[in-house]
């Protein structure tokens, strides 16, 4: 679907420009013009250099680190509201702070709820995102949420590999529902890696629930941060008799030593999307990273939202 109308305008945040270009190309319209200026202390001030009065505005920006990405999104929403935009949709391919979705220990914030409140308070009428860390985060918003499913991108790719003994795996207990949902597309068995953490980003121990002997295992996760969990799971799976192991992960945060861990791991490949831009130099050097684009999917969703069409059709995986 690609039938842009005159009153639709797409704008890119500086943290998601490459993906925004792909979305705008698939949608069939150029990105709108804006300027991001900075005061000498680093404070940012985005402003639109064209009229958006009465327009349906889609602001494309993931909220991965640095925190400027989030602040820029909020300021762009506020600027659009004050410029009399008719309807503002925050297109947030990667919704940061989603791992802080509950009070799992005393005296901590529920960051995902706070960010939801900020986006709403800034003036967004709608949010569009993909593969939230927990689907119930949608309930943190008091505005409509279009929660796109990365499976529509990953499943065709995995099918193209023609893996003879496919088994789906979750790298932790928390991702078991995601893995089981994914496995239904292949009528495949599911195994789970049960991990114990010392603290965030540090795994103490891990064990496998299920049999992986002679299986071609695909690990399913939503976020790859330091790659510690995925690479440990891959090593354990191979040591347990699997024939191959690869990982599918929607959001490539890839912080710290993630790139090195992936390259030195037992993974045959790591398949991610472009919701967060992968370092071009690291990608060029990598033998294992493969990036699939979400541009066409988001463009299709934007068209359907603007034309008041159904989004549910975008969840039909071939």
UniProtKB/TrEMBL annotation:
Catalytic activity line of the entry: D-ribose 5-phosphate + ATP = 5-phospho-alpha-D-ribose 1-diphosphate + AMP + H(+)
A single MF term (Gene Ontology): ATP binding
CDD domains (alphabetical): PRTases_typeI (cd06223)
Cross-referenced InterPro entries: PRib_PP_synth_CS, Pribosyltran_N, PRTase-like, PRTase_dom, Rib-P_diPkinase
One Pfam family it belongs to: Pribosyltran_N
The keyword Metal-binding is assigned to this record: yes
Domain Ribose-phosphate pyrophosphokinase N-terminal as annotated: residue spans: 8-123
Enzyme class: transferase
Origin: domain of life: Bacteria
Record's protein name: ribose-phosphate diphosphokinase
